[in-house]
Amino acid sequence: MSSQPLKVLFLSSDTGGGHRASAESLAAQFELLFPGTTYDLLDVVTKDGLPPYNQLVQHYKHLSAHPQQWNLVFKFSNSRAFEFFFDVSNKLLCEKAMRKSIMEYNPDVVVSVHPMMTNVPISCCEKISEETGRHLPIFTVVTDLASAHCLWFANGVDKIYIASDECRKLAKERGKVPDEKIIQIGLPIRHQFAVHADLMGDRMSNEGKEYQKKVRGSLGLPVVDKKTVLVMGGGEGVGSLSNIVDSLYVEFYNKGIDALILVVCGRNEKLKADLEVRDWDTVLAKHHERQYARSHSLTNFSFQSCVSGVKAPVAYSSGCMEGSVTQQIKRILSSSSLGKITSTNAISSMSDDEEEVVVDDKVSSSSGAGRAASPLVNLPPMIEVDDVEDEDDDKSPSDEGSESIGNVSSTKSEVAQKKKGEIKVVGLGFVTKMAEYMVAADVLISKAGPGTIAEAASLSLPVMLTSFLPGQEEGNVDYVVNGGFGAFVSDKDPTRVAKEVGNWLVDEEKAKELSSAAKKCGAPHAARDIVKSIGSLTLKWKQINDDRERLNKAAEKLKLGIASYEEEESIEQSYSAAENQVYS
């Protein structure tokens, strides 16, 4: 079937950038694969919906900045009771207005990329088909990776496109969507990622590394032959970016890693300006001063505890999450009843001299044989103590027989004398060439947004996740961790974030393992493949609709007795052809 232009109507909303970005990536593919195609974006809920649903866009920024409130809203709305109430109320009170809005665009196909725009728009398209006599196909493209909202999965669509096995399971269990309607391809991302994925090939090969250097040069980066870390915090530059950057600088310095740190600040102009003038010698000096103070406070506490007969506390590290135990961790992090247990001290229950990392439900211990990980609910009472650096990386002045550090300026000279790593930090504003920057990077540090994860995986880029929206993005953490191409460490513990990323940069085999796993999970051509499927089915329906119209007109003429013998033969042939297309 030839590629004809189509009129495409996307149903989307600006509750986060992911929905619009997915719609635009699909629209770009429609223009490439079906030249002459036109498209529109319609937020039918904001335009014709009921309150409070039609005010969600203006409240989204507040909710996303307050994770516990978001968690409450997500969990309340992600229930069968709410799903039933939402569908019934909107069908009764809003369907007619939504149907009118859709008909005004006179589309050939409707594509929903938002969970609140599935069930009612399906009813709208069914009634439009009845009224016009032309079937109006509607498709859903799920823009979540794993923990998708129940409103995504409505059975009345022609096809539903998903990115993971987790979404397939949800579609079948919550939406009762049959397998023949579910197509698992991947998350639609911008075309530039597919272009660079094809050009780069294997990131860890010699050719891939040469292409990486070429892209770094084209971006005008200050260095092209150093390890590069890309740090992101969302469009607003949110999250503990500043603390993470400081910790990365200190860790790379101590490990002797020559590196370039690229910080996407977004709208956070203050952070961008601060990074340009930040005194990194002072950052290093303050870090060493804090380590000295911590080591002495722990020593004094242990001595007093021994004298008084009280057991000294354990200095808990916040290790990175690389196994199924993350599900339990995330329940604690997303709970509104954390009490005095914070995300820093709740992540791990082992001391610094027996540090454990959980990988695929197995525990490795630096002190000897492994043991099974204890469920978090059975963790002993915790006393929050700041993380103590590894002895090899950061020895306190007392370890070297030096005197107490009086102030930051007196520490600078000591820091300068033993400097090992050469690090450059570059603050970026809004980035329009994200694909190029991800090619240039060796590691991405980001929140658990589905689009960002999909983009990184498409370019075989290892990912360190530092935060997530409770409920909606929890499954994305599991997707990365279980996929083997990254880890999760809370941004409340930037030191541990930096340590884990530093370990990746100095371990070539680990880097290859992470990159290979990312490539397996990536789908750089997902947008193209989704559009091919939608476009092909839409053109078939257009042909069937056109044949039906021609048949109906011919039938009317036949009833009036004005059809010739040749026309009757043509009617019969057209009818047979239309039947064959329907059943094929």
Can you characterise this structure?
The structure is a single chain. The chain has 584 residues and is an alpha/beta fold. The chain is built from 22 helices and 15 strands. The strands form 3 sheets. The protein has a 6-stranded parallel β-sheet with strand order 2-1-3-4-5-6, with helices on both faces. Strands 12-8-7-13-14-15 form a 6-stranded parallel β-sheet, sandwiched between helices. The chain has a 3-stranded mixed β-sheet with strand order 9-10-11, with no helix packed on it. Helix 10 (206-218) packs across helix 16 and helix 13 (280-308) packs across helix 15. It is elongated. The model is unreliable at 235-239, 303-319 and 330-406 (pLDDT under 50).
In short:
With 584 residues, the protein is α/β, with parallel strands linked by helices.
Using the CA coordinates, give the radius of gyration.
28 Å
Number of helices: 22
- Beta-strand content bin: 5-15%
Inertia-based shape: elongated
Strands of the widest sheet, in order across it, are 2-1-3-4-5-6
Integer average pLDDT = 80
Residues in helices, as a percent range: 40-55%
As residue ranges, the low-confidence spans are 235-239, 303-319, 330-406
Q: Tell me about the largest β-sheet.
A: 6 strands, parallel
CA(first)-CA(last) distance: 13 Å
Class of secondary structure makeup = alpha/beta
Q: Please report the total strand number as a whole number.
A: 15
